[in-house]
């Protein structure tokens, strides 16, 4: 949830490729996903974003838009409604 919240605030995220990370980050668009356990990859991604304010801003803007479109409250409610209806029918 913290990664979605950060992106909703316009902050690009860098995370390791574990669990459901690919469901909450659009790699290269809203942030960067690095190989699981790759401390070097994480450091390189963070350094790249630290050096490029334009890339950070572009990813942050895209992150805000992407989260709103894909993980907004309305979509979440619709998803829960579909799930619950599938359980009772």
List the helices and strands and how they pair.
Layout: H1 2-8, E1 13-16, H2 21-24, E2 31-34, H3 39-51, H4 53-71, H5 73-88
Parallel strand pairs: 1-2
Helix pairs in contact: 4-5
Report helical residue fraction.
55-70%
The chain-level structural class is: mainly alpha
Shape: elongated
Q: Find the count of extended strands (DSSP E, 2+ residues).
A: 2
How many domains make up the coordinates? 1
CATH fold field value: Rossmann fold
Low-confidence stretches: none
Strands side by side in the biggest sheet: 1-2
User: What pattern of helices and strands is seen along the backbone?
Assistant: HEHEHHH
Strand content: 5-15%
Distance from N terminus to C terminus (CA atoms, Å) equals 30 Å
The largest sheet is: 2 strands, parallel
CATH architecture: 3-Layer(aba) Sandwich
Q: How many H/I helical runs?
A: 5
Q: Please, what is the CATH homologous superfamily?
A: Glycogen Phosphorylase B
What value does the Rg take, in angstroms? 15 Å
CATH class reads: Alpha Beta
Mean pLDDT across all residues, rounded? 93
């Amino acid at each position: 949830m913290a990664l979605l919240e950060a992106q909703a605030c316009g902050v690009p995220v860098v995370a390791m490729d574990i669990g459901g990370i690919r469901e909450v980050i659009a790699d290269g668009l809203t942030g960067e996903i690095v190989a699981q356990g790759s401390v070097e990859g994480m450091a390189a991604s963070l350094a790249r974003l630290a050096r490029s304010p334009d890339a950070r801003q572009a990813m942050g803007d895209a992150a805000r838009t992407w989260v709103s479109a894909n993980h907004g409250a309305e979509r979440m409610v619709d998803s829960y409604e579909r799930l619950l209806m599938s359980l009772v029918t």
